[in-house]
Amino acid sequence: MNKIMLIGNVGADPEVRYYEADQAVAQVRLATTERGYTLQNGTQVPDHTDWHNLVMYRRLAKVVEKYVHKGDKLYVEGRIRYRSYDDQRGVRKFVTEILVDNMEMLSPKAAANATGANAPESAPQPVQPRPGEKSDDEVLPF
After folding, report:
1. Which element (helix H / strand E) includes 117?
2. Beta strand pairing status for 44-45 and 15-19?
């Protein structure tokens, strides 16, 4: 089984390209961080950040283009792919990519509003007492 799940932060705005008949491909850099900790003997283990190359196709790529920005927190599911190519000097390069099948945006709506998205925030609605129940101002604290 080839399955990967990641939660991380987008490192830069997505790169989206279109090819044949309005099909899109998006590339996103995602940073995942393992928090540091202290061992029982007092040794400090620092944070460790890994960078992942995400690739999304078609409809998911168009969603990424419209809604995902640098700094957003994402949850992605997909599969890992290894490939290689020869660069302009003839040196063989190896690339590890995550082909994303499913994505959820985890950034709060307030952050999306700060980046210019037009998502209305929902204000909490006051709770009304049921018929026959006393409201909070009628209930004595003793």
Report:
1. none
2. unpaired
List the structure tokens of 110: 């307030």
* Alpha-carbon separation of residue 132 from 38, 90, 136 (angstroms): 56, 81, 13
At 50-105, the pLDDT tens digits run 999 999 999 999 999 999 999 999 999 999 999 999 999 999 999 999 999 999 99
CB atoms within 10 A of CB 41: 5
- Residues 76 and 8: their CA atoms lie apart, in Å, by 9
CA angle 111, 115, 117 (to 5 degrees): 90
Which pair of tokens denotes residue 100?
A: 């994303």
Q: Which amino acid is it at 85?
A: Y
The per-residue pLDDT for 138 is 44
Structure tokens at 41: 């003997």
| Percent of the chain whose pLDDT exceeds 90 | 72
Look up residue 86 and give its amino acid.
Answer: D
